[in-house]
């Protein structure tokens, strides 16, 4: 078997030592400006059939356990609390419409969104503050994070599933018209008025 060249080995070592996923530009800068896209593709092919894979999530590269081996590494631990319906809706809106403000989220959902709902998503590392929209009042706008893509196994937001795929996979409860609006349904209608406690977790 032909030995990998020094640059491929250097890219591999850099990613193994990294504390967080790295972009190709960050890897290149770490290696004194070397062109790393070729070595990344070579490493990705090399690891394709191994117990760990080299994957790109949100333009960041990282090693992760092969999906069919993940069960070997699971430990008994308390599972994260399942997201409430409100948090699930907000996460979907941010993912499909980012960057988006809280007022825009509420306009899509048809109900007020508590600050706690966004806090839960930010604490999970799936949503972050993107900045402020340059309009009167300069509202804060939100976007998803690379951790969101990594957790859900997405290379980019283009890989987000459609509503029919989510329903078929059993990942969503039956949704109403407001939720159809949240993920861009072509058949959206005005949502029905929500009950006062619709956003309580």
Structure description:
It is a single chain. With 201 residues, the chain is an alpha+beta fold. The protein folds into 2 domains: 6-73, Arc Repressor Mutant, subunit A, CATH 1.10.10; 85-182, Arc Repressor Mutant, subunit A, CATH 1.10.10. The chain has helices at residues 6-17, 24-30, 37-46, 85-97, 102-109, 115-123, 146-151, 163-168, 177-182; strands at 22-23, 52-57, 60-65, 100-101, 127-132, 140-144. The protein has a 3-stranded antiparallel beta sheet. Strands 4-6-5 form a 3-stranded antiparallel beta sheet. Helix 1 (6-17) packs across helix 3 (37-46). The radius of gyration is 20 Å and the shape is elongated. The termini are far apart. The model is unreliable at 76-80, 173-183 and 185-198 (pLDDT under 50).
Write the layout of secondary structure elements.
Layout: H1 6-17, E1 22-23, H2 24-30, H3 37-46, E2 52-57, E3 60-65, H4 85-97, E4 100-101, H5 102-109, H6 115-123, E5 127-132, E6 140-144, H7 146-151, H8 163-168, H9 177-182
Antiparallel strand pairs: 1-3, 2-3, 4-6, 5-6
Helix pairs in contact: 1-3, 4-6
CATH topology (level 3) name of the largest domain = Arc Repressor Mutant, subunit A
* CATH architectural type of the largest domain: Orthogonal Bundle
Show unreliable segments: 76-80, 173-183, 185-198
SS summary, helix count? 9
Largest sheet: 3 strands, antiparallel
Strand order in space, largest sheet:
1-3-2
Number of domains: 2
């Amino acid at each position: 078997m032909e030995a990998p060249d020094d640059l491929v080995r250097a890219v591999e070592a850099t990613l193994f030592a990294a504390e967080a996923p790295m972009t190709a530009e960050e890897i290149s800068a770490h290696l004194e400006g070397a062109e790393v896209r070729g070595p990344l593709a070579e490493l990705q092919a090399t690891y394709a059939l191994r117990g760990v894979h080299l994957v790109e999530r949100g333009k960041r590269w990282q090693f992760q356990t092969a999906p069919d081996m993940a069960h070997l590494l699971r430990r008994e631990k308390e599972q994260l609390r399942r997201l409430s319906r409100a948090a699930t809706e907000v996460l979907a809106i941010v993912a499909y419409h980012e960057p988006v403000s809280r007022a825009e989220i509420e306009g899509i959902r048809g109900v007020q969104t508590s600050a706690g709902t966004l806090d839960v998503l930010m604490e999970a590392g799936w949503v972050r503050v993107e900045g402020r929209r340059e309009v009167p009042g300069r509202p804060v706008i939100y976007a998803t994070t690379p951790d969101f893509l990594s957790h859900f196994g997405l290379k980019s937001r283009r890989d987000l599933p459609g509503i029919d795929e989510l329903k078929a996979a059993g990942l969503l409860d039956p949704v109403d018209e407001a939720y159809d609006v949240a993920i861009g349904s072509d058949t959206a209608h005005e949502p029905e008025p929500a009950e006062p406690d619709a956003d309580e977790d």
